[in-house]
Amino acid sequence: MQLHRRPLHPRRPAPRPRRGAPHRAALLDETRERLPAGEYWFLLLSSAAGAALLPASRDLATLVVALEVASLPAFALVGLKRGDRMSGEAALKFFLSSVTATAVTLLGASFVYAATGTLHLTEIAQRLDDVPGQLQTLAEAGVALTLVGFAFKTAAVPFHFWVPDTYVGAPLPVAAYLSVVGKAVGFTGLILVTVVAFPSYADVWGPALAVLAALTMTAGNVAALRQLSTRAWSAVRLLAWSSVAQAGYLLVPIAAAAYSSDDQIGATVAYALMYAVVNLGAFAVVALVARVRPRNRIEDYRGLYATHPAAALALAFFLLNLAGLPRVSSASSPR
User: Fewer Cβ in 10 A, N or C end of the chain?
Assistant: First the structure.
C-alpha cells in the first residue's frame, strides 16, 4: 500500500483581487509586472527632480538645464519595455522631437542673450525695452524661437506629431506621467519666458499663442473623434489626442495674459491641477482594462460596468471632467 505524503509547504492559490479595488493600483501593478523596478523608479525620480527644479528657475540657462533633467530620463522611461519594437520606436520619436525643441530653444536663448547681454529673466524684461535698433531683429527672432521650442514641449499644434505614437509605445504608467508632469514642465517654462522675461513683446507672443491655442484645441478634438473603436490601442490614442486638446485649453489663459494682467495665469494653474488628477485616473482605468484586453481598443470597454462597476463609474467621471461639463468640472477643480 502506497502512502501519499502531505507536502510540507503546500502551494496556496493566488489571492483573487477584490471587486472594487483593482483600479486603484492598476498603474502600480503594471509597473511591478512588466518594468524593471530599479531602473523605473530611478529614472522617474530623476525626471521628477528636474520638473521640481524648473519652477524655481530665474534665468534661461537654469531653465534649459531643468528641462533637460526632466526630459532625458523620460526618453529611457518610454523605451523601458525591453524587446518591444513599438516602445523603442516611441522612444526614438520622443527623443528626436525633444532634442529638436531643445536646440531651437537654445538658439533662441542665445539670440536673446546677444541682444540683451544677460540670461536672468527679470533683467531680460528690462533690457528688451532698450535694445538698439540694429539688434531689434535679433531680439525678435530670439523671442520667436524660444516660443517655438516650448511649443514642442507642450505638444501644441503643429508641434504635436510625437504625442500619439509615444503614448502608445510607452508603458502605460510612463504615458500617464508624460501626459501630466511632462505637460506641466512645458507650460511652467512657457509661463516663465512669456510673462516674466518677454512682457515687452506681448504683442508678438499673445497673438501667436492665441492662434496655437485655437489650432491645438481644434486638431486635438477632431483627431480624437476620428479614432476607430476596433483599432488596436485606440483607447490610448484617444487619451493622447485628448491630451493635445487639453494643451490648447491651457494655452488660452497664457495668451489672454498678453492683453490683461498676469492674474490670468492662475486659471492655467488651476486647470492644470484638475487635469492632472482626472487624467491620471483615466489612465489608471485604462491600465486596469489592459490586464485582460492588452490591445486596449475602445470597444473593449463595452460592458465594463458589468465586470468592474467602480472602475466604469470612475472612468465616466474622469471623461466628463475632461469633456469640461460645467457642474462636474467645477466640482473637482480647486477652489
Answer: N
Interacting residues of 169 by C-beta distance below 8 A, sequence separation 6+: 78, 84, 86, 87, 88, 89, 90, 91
- What number of other Cβ atoms are within 10 A of residue 56's Cβ? 10
Rounded distance, CA 246 to CA 80, Å?
Answer: 26
Q: Are 282 and 323 spatial neighbours (Cβ–Cβ below 8 Å)?
A: no
Measured CA to CA, the distance from residue 38 to residue 171 in angstroms comes to: 15
Question: Would you tell me how many other CB atoms lie within 10 Å of the CB of residue 66?
Answer: 22
Collapsing DSSP states into helix, strand and coil, what is residue 200?
Answer: helix
| Number of Cβ atoms within 10 Å of the Cβ of 285 | 26
Count Cβ atoms below 10 Å from residue 258 Cβ, excluding itself. Answer: 22
- What is the rounded CA–CA span in Å between residue 329 and residue 320? 8
pTM, 2 dp: 0.81
What is the rounded CA–CA span in Å between residue 149 and residue 100? 8
Positive or negative torsion for Cα 304, 306, 309, 313: positive
Q: How far apart are CA 287 and CA 283, in angstroms?
A: 6
The cell for 281 is: 485616473
Q: What is the pLDDT of residue 37?
A: 75
Could you report the average pLDDT of every consecutive run of 10 residues in the chain (335 residues)? 48 46 51 69 91 89 90 89 84 89 91 91 89 87 90 87 89 90 88 89 89 93 87 88 91 87 75 88 90 85 87 90 65 44
